[in-house]
Amino acid sequence: MTSELLQRARQFEKDHMKDISPEERPLYHVTGGTGWINDPNGFSFYKGEYHLFYQYHPYSNEWGPMHWGHVVSKDLIRWERRPVVMAPDQDYDNAGCFSGSALELPDGRHLLMYTGVGRVTEEDGSQKDYQTQCMAVGDGTEYEKYEQNPVITTAVVPEGGSKVDFRDPKIWQEEDGTFYAVASNATDDGNSAILLFQSKDGFRWEFCSVIDRSDKKLGWMWECPDFFELDGKHILMASPMEMMPDGLKFHVGHGTIYIPGTYDKETHQFVREDVLPIDSGIDFYAPQTMKAPDGRRIMIAWMQAWSTSKFVPKGQKYFGQMTVPRELSLKEGKMIQKPVRELEAFRGQKVLHENIKIFQETSLEGVSGRVLDMTVRLKVDGRFRNFSIKTAQDTEHYTLVSYDPEKEILSLDRSHSGLQYDIIHTREISVKPVDGEITLRCLMDRFSLEIFINDGSQTATVTVYTPQSAEGISFSAEGEAEITVEKYALSF
Asked: What is the C-alpha separation between 129 and 149, in angstroms, rounded?
């Protein structure tokens, strides 16, 4: 039965989506129908379609009581909007339906697992939010919350764990039929632990083990955990809050990490081997993965950052978008990210400039636009001191990507993009040449730039809100740089 709060959210979205023209949205990145979105949720394949849910406050461009929005796709590129599926309408989630995940049950139903935030008035009159793990089941459009929610309460949190900060379950099913879920839990010593739970039927859960713990140099709460096998290794992903910088490896504030390691499925013990950044750009948080029917591990993330999320561009009628879905693999212990191959079906005619010498600001014929897939191969041979690409360029605006071969640093700079706020606009990333080259695959879509460095061994994501008329792309160098540029316009 659809609650009054859910009906209200659906009607509001329907009434106000018409106020946002297609030209005001990106072409191949997911946005909310109206209002605000953040974390991707419930990324899964069900009944022949990819389903993506997301944290959603339809009523304004600011974070508010969380709902779940919903889109579906056949190809991970073109998305169709479906009605809002959850609103905070129960005692156990009256302050928000927080992040979670999804899978298909053996009986064919679609199972959503999420964090319910229940606001309770204490005896002294104060209010406190308690987080528990809850379920909803549905058919791909309509969902009902489980009558015995919550299914995992703070009663099972290990000693020293928070009864308040306990959230973001990621569920999966092993080949033997057992269901597992990881969730994040703050600890009394100012850190957090990733807790593992197991279930025989997906609804009755018991605590299993602690997969890993943060330490103070790796931030505080590890939000939105994910745990999966990839090319023979297990990967733990998380989004730590309040990280301290570590050279150019990790930046200050909210970040994202992945931890490759070994996992014993009998003892449920995980041994980490390294800690590495997932994306080193400015706007990337809360990634979630799914396993596609063809076996690919695919990841999507919120293309925004909490540190800049209160600075909504003037005139913006919605706020927040998702990254392009990315295929994951491992190479020499490092995670490789590439845009899903389905994107290539939307490429137009190829524009190719080979072995071009650049020594002053130069534009290349046919290389311009705001919706494109462009790969730049830069020879690093000692003949230049700095190389730069300006994208989304006109006489006043540009977003700058530059490389210093001596320092081996790739820099992003959107301070001339038109966002006139005192927020993070620059980022430096340590990037080493591979076989004497730096390769930058740049995906642009109206309000964003995603860079896949050296065939996806590193990535850097940034949102830009430059006027759409700024379509120029230029290249420059201090000294002489040699580049090859392959560019495709994208159409949908």
From this structure: 16
